[in-house]
Amino acid sequence: MSAFVEASHADIAIVGAGAAGLFAAIHAARLAPRARIVALDSARTLGAKILVAGGGRCNVTHRAVSERDYFGGSRQQIRRVLRRFGVRETVAFFASCGVDLKEEETGKLFPTTDKARTVLDALVGAASAAGVEVVHPCRVESITPAHVGEDRLLVQTASGSLAARRVIIATGGKSLPKSGSDGSGYALAQALGHSLTPLVLPALVPLTLPGGHWILSLSGLALDARVHAVAASGERLHSCEGAVLCTHFGLSGPAILDISRHWLHAAESDAEARIEINWLPRFSPETLDAHLLSARGTSVSAAMHGLLPERFFRALCTVACVDPAMGVQQVSRAARLALVRLATACELRPSGTRGFVAAETTAGGVPLDEVDLATMNSVCCPRLHLCGEILDVDGRIGGFSFQWAWATGFIAGSAAAAALTQTG
Predict the structure, then answer these.
(1) Can you name the residues that pair with 246 across neighbouring β-strands?
(2) 83, 24 Cβ separation under 8 angstroms
(3) Residue 355: which H helix or E strand, with range?
(4) Which residues contact 142 (CB under 8 A, 6 or more apart)?
(5) Which of 309, 286, 376, 332 is nearest to 14 (CA)?
(6) Residues 6+ apart with CB under 8 A from 195
(7) Percent over 90 (pLDDT), the chain
(8) Cβ-Cβ contacts under 8 Å for 129 (sequence gap 6 or more)
(9) Distance between CA 384 and CA 14 in Å, rounded?
């Protein structure tokens, strides 16, 4: 820290040394090897979000990434950014750092070591090799223009100030605040003229259900399902398919994490917004009902054998008031249809989410219209760039948020370094 205080000038200061910040620092330093580049991070544990990502394995990216995997900014804007630094470039970068990636059946790419530490060490090592100074914990309190006529921004920290020719804000959003992304970057950006989207909400977050809900008793069960976010009008707003995990608080799993931002956005203005789950994706309500009717002469249990986990099936029967041992022909039409609806069009009204402390990313942030997408340069404040999760873009589960961090970090760092040579 003393070296930082004594040398109070930098060519580029990066606020936030997570995925996007480290990537920006590395590429800036490689393009401008004689420049002084300082990355400041408030967290005690550097790269904490990287270390917990993908269950501690770090899902670096996905084999197929497109603008359709993201929400927030327009698809045209997102496509423009992703084209600058795609999956091929990501794989090549990590290979150059000694990190080989493997592709899993889902399309997710992980380090062959299955350790997130491998990814973080590669990033920190590449930054160090390029001459980046990483200072942490060091909380940035404000960023202000230097004196009139000076070509610098003043970065104020609790340990002193740093005058920088270029500043890159890469603080993240509000997800997993213990990792350092506690939303403080928004205030820094707003003070320099930026705005925020009307809603800034947790995304890729588990959903909670009211106390006493029947699903809470099924904690630990996981099923492949199709999930829809549904408006009060009945309109399906978004659909996802994948694993759904029943928990002691509600629902989690990939399909729930993906649907969460869509339900939550709808629920902000529509109190009756809900989710609908088909626990048997290969059946529709009509085909499941036909399946049951074709099984006359057998019990409900026999007709449904092997379609659902036994504990889950019996819970559905209890809620639908159906005796699983009863013959299909003996079950009333109303009870049979109730069971069919629960299995293929189960309506649930979450009580909320697990919040930012459990969210993997943030929905909302600084609008993309407020940055030049060719450089990630602020249109509100000269010499300022923004990258990563602070921007209004969030990806679905599967490494897409990391790919956004790599792409925007690359653009911001490269552009900041190029600007140094242009301005002398």
Answers:
(1) 251
(2) no
(3) none
(4) 154, 155, 156, 188, 191
(5) 376
(6) 366, 367, 370
(7) 92
(8) none
(9) 10
Nearest to 362 by CA among 394, 385, 336: 394
Long-range contacts of 281-285 (CB under 8 A, 24+ apart): 281/224, 281/225, 281/226, 281/241, 283/343, 283/344, 284/344, 285/340, 285/341, 285/344, 285/345
Q: Give the contacts of 127 (CB within 8 A, at least 6 positions apart).
A: 22, 25, 26, 29, 39, 134
Q: Which residue has the tokens 């989690």?
A: 252
- For residues 23 and 406, the answer to whether their CB atoms sit within 8 Å is yes
Q: Catalogue all structural domains in the chain, each as residue range(s) with its CATH number.
A: 2-200+365-423 (3.50.50.60), 207-353 (2.40.30.10)
pLDDT digits (tens, 9 = 90+) for 241-272: 999 999 999 999 999 999 999 999 999 999 99
Map residue 136 onto helix, strand or coil.
coil
Output the pLDDT for position 150.
Answer: 67
pLDDT of residue 66: 98
CA distance 78 to 166: 24
Percentage of residues in the chain with pLDDT exceeding 70? 97
| Residues 201, 69: Cα–Cα separation, whole Å | 18
Q: Which residue has the tokens 């003996």?
A: 330
Q: pLDDT (tens digit, 9 = 90+) per residue, 29-73?
A: 999 999 999 999 999 899 999 999 999 999 999 999 999 999 999
> Among 112-121, 175-184, 292-301, where is mean pLDDT lowest?
175-184
